[in-house]
C-alpha cells in the first residue's frame, strides 16, 4: 500500500489484516505531488521486492482549488497523471521480470470533453477551472494507458484504464464548495444512486484478475465491461505527445 497519509494507511492496513488474516500487508509512504517522493518510493520498492504482479494507480484529487506542487506543476495534473506516470515507468523493469503482470490506471468518465492543454498545462494563460483541469488529468490517464499498452506490446505486461463509477468517498470534498450546482446534483436523492466504495472497486478488481483481458491491453473498462472511450481518448498522436511531454517534465529517459 503506497499512501501519502501513513496514519490513515496503517489503520486501513490493520483492518485488512484483521478481515483477511493476511499479515503480509506492507505500508510505504508515497506522495504523488512530489517527484522526489515518487523516486524514493520506487527505488525502495526495487531494492526490497522481487516481484510486482499488479500495479494499481488509484490515488487522485478531484476539482481542488488551483495550486502548484513543489515541482511547479498544477496539482491535479501532477497528482493524477505525472506522479502515476513516473512511478509506473520506474517500476517497468520489475513488472517485466514478473510477467504476466498488469498496470491498472483508474481514470474517469470525466475524460469525455477533456483536452490536454499542451501549451498551458499549468493554466498560466487561461483562467483556472477545476473541472477543466480534472478532465485534462483523467484524459491523461486514458492516453497514458493507450501509449503504455502500445509500448509494452508482446512484453507480457498489460495495461488497462477504467471508470470506477461515481462513488461515495471523500474524493469529491471540493465539489460542494467550488461547484455548488454540481454539489446539489450529488446530494440526496442523487447520492443514493452512488456506488459504495466496495461497489466502486469492482471494475478495478476485474481489470486486475480477469483472465481473458490480455488482448485488450491499452483499453478502457467500466462496470466490469470493455467500453469505448470518447474520441479524445483514442487520439494516438496526443497519446504519444503526452508521453514525450510527461517524460520531459519528470526527467525520465528510457536510456
UniProtKB/TrEMBL annotation:
InterPro entries: NAD(P)-bd_dom_sf (IPR036291), SDR_fam (IPR002347). Coiled coil: none annotated. Transmembrane segments: none annotated. It holds the Pfam family adh_short. The keyword Oxidoreductase applies. One of its GO terms (molecular function) is oxidoreductase activity. Gene3D superfamilies: NAD(P)-binding Rossmann-like Domain. Keywords: Oxidoreductase. It comes from the Eukaryota. Belongs to the short-chain dehydrogenases/reductases (SDR) family. This is Retinol dehydrogenase 13. It comes from Triplophysa rosa (Cave loach).
